[in-house]
């Protein structure tokens, strides 16, 4: 096929490149330019996972290559999160010491932490004697946790994780505490009762144990909790 007679091309130039080819060439040039000025090893939010993909710990996004990650760092979402983190650090009274070039002032550099393994754990099935709600009690051991660090917990849907095939019948509870690896426990995709004394977590600094209790809503509460005009259930 003759490409030299395409509209807009010069004689002998091979034709006008397509938009996709132009974008690919632009991304490659930007990637090479960024790699010359940015050291990913010093980026506190850059993380390479066990499957070879790259993650942004600030925005919780996954990228297939370093070029995609670098393009993400220049995007609106990443820059907005950097600004929010800087405002939070400034509000907490933290200075800009240790801030790395390319990051907004006030953002603390977070060094890559060497993981030392998974925390020990124990899971116990429980039932509320009054409401007859089923639940679980988690006990995690963090004997070598970093001083001043309190473990964190959150729930994750099946579609957020990248390890298994997403299944809407399950959800995950995530527990993290440096320098230990982040662990996840697979649960039924039932609604968790977040009322007082139903869902709570507590860290025993003396014994370095992190306790988490959750109770699932009863079938009645799950069925009628979102119906207007009806009581949310027994308290």
Give the strand order, joined by hyphens, for the main sheet: 4-5-10-9
Question: Tally of extended strands?
Answer: 10
Cα radius of gyration in angstroms: 25 Å
Which parts are unreliable, with pLDDT below 50 for 5 consecutive residues or more? 95-109, 227-235
Region (Disordered): 1-25
GO molecular function: nucleic acid binding; zinc ion binding
Domain Matrin-type: 54-84
GO cellular component, one term: U2-type prespliceosome
What does the model show?
This protein has a domain at 120-224: Immunoglobulin-like, CATH 2.60.40. A hairpin with a 4-residue loop joins β9 (200-204) and β10. It is α+β, with helices and mostly antiparallel strands and 235 residues long. The protein contains four helices and ten strands, in the order αβββααβββββββα. It has a four-stranded antiparallel beta sheet with strand order 4-5-10-9, with no helix packed on it. The chain has a three-stranded antiparallel beta sheet with strand order 1-2-3. The chain is globular. Mean pLDDT is 77; it is low at 95-109 and 227-235. The protein starts with 18 loop residues before the first helix and ends in an 11-residue tail after the last helix. α1 packs across α2.
């Amino acid at each position: 096929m003759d490409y030299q007679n395409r509209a807009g091309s010069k004689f002998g130039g091979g034709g006008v490149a397509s938009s996709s080819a132009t974008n690919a060439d632009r991304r490659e040039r930007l990637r090479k330019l960024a790699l010359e000025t940015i050291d990913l090893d010093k980026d506190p939010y850059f993380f390479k996972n066990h499957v070879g993909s790259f993650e942004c710990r600030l925005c919780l996004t996954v990228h297939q290559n370093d070029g995609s990650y670098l393009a993400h760092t220049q995007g609106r979402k990443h820059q907005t999160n950097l600004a929010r983190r800087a405002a939070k650090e400034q509000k907490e009274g933290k200075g800009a010491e240790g801030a790395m070039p390319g990051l907004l002032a006030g953002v603390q550099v977070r060094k890559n932490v060497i993981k030392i393994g998974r925390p020990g754990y124990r899971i116990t099935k429980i039932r509320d004697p009054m409401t007859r709600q089923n639940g679980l009690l988690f006990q995690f051991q963090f004997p070598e946790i970093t001083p001043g660090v309190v473990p964190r917990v959150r729930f994750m849907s099946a579609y957020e994780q990248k390890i298994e095939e997403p299944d809407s019948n399950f959800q995950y509870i995530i527990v993290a505490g440096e320098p230990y690896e982040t662990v996840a426990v697979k649960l039924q995709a039932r609604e968790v009762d977040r009322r007082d004394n139903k869902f709570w977590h507590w860290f025993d600094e003396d014994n370095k144990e992190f306790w988490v209790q959750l109770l699932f809503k009863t079938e009645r509460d799950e069925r009628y909790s979102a119906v207007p005009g009806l009581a949310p259930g027994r308290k």
